[in-house]
Amino acid sequence: MAAAGWGRYVVGRQRGFEVVSEPHRQHPDAGIQLPSRGSRHSAGYDLHTPVGFTLMPGARAVIVTDLKSYMLPDEVLSVYPRSSVGLRGVMLTNTVGIVDADYYANASNDGNIRLSFHNIGPEAFTAQAGDRIAQAIFTKYLLADGDGFAAGPERLGGQGHTGR
């Protein structure tokens, strides 16, 4: 699948989603839905929760999607709460989730996308398994002049391991 110089990137495909490999699944009995766009002009791919959950006011929860994404080396996947979720006071703890191209298929978690939600609203938020809870948008990014990582080190692990 990978060619020399491409590391974990999927050669022959540009971008998309896959279910993580069995050893890295957090919800092995759940039917994982691959993200899709809701309409022809939707920018975001809807992410579905694999399990139901309730988030009380002030509470936080991490939802492991059992999904990974592949993309070209100069692309990023940005993850946002769906408006219907955000309007109820539920936000991503880090405000925008960033999934780098080299997060795909890493050894520690196979690139399993995790969503950390925080309920800042006055009421409990409940999602059922299969509900659309976030949206993900692929975009290109640019490098600054003199960027020392253009040919720099490869990612060593999963979440939070860039630069370690």
Euclidean distance between termini CA atoms: 26 Å
How many whole angstroms does the radius of gyration measure? Answer: 16 Å
**What is the class in the CATH system?**
Mainly Beta
Major sheet description: 4 strands, antiparallel
Query: What's the total number of strands?
Result: 11
Low-confidence stretches: 1-6
Helical amount = under 10%
Number of domains: 1
Instruction: Work out the strand percent.
Output: 25-35%
Strand order within the widest sheet?
2-11-6-8
What is the CATH topology classification name? Deoxyuridine 5'-Triphosphate Nucleotidohydrolase, Chain A
CATH architecture: Distorted Sandwich
Spell out the helices and strands N to C: EEEEEEHEEEEE
The helix count comes to: 1
Morphology call? globular
The name of the CATH superfamily reads Deoxyuridine triphosphatase (dUTPase)
Sheet/helix structural class:
mainly beta
Name the average pLDDT: 88
Detailed description of the structure:
The chain is an all-beta fold and 164 residues long. The chain has one domain: Deoxyuridine 5'-Triphosphate Nucleotidohydrolase, Chain A (Distorted Sandwich). Helices cover 2% and strands 32% of the residues. It has one helix and eleven strands. The protein has one helix at 83-86, and strands spanning 16-19, 45-48, 53-55, 60-64, 67-70, 75-81, 90-92, 97-100, 114-119, 125-127, 132-140. A four-stranded antiparallel sheet has the order 2-11-6-8. The longest helix has 4 residues, at 83-86. The relative contact order is 0.24.
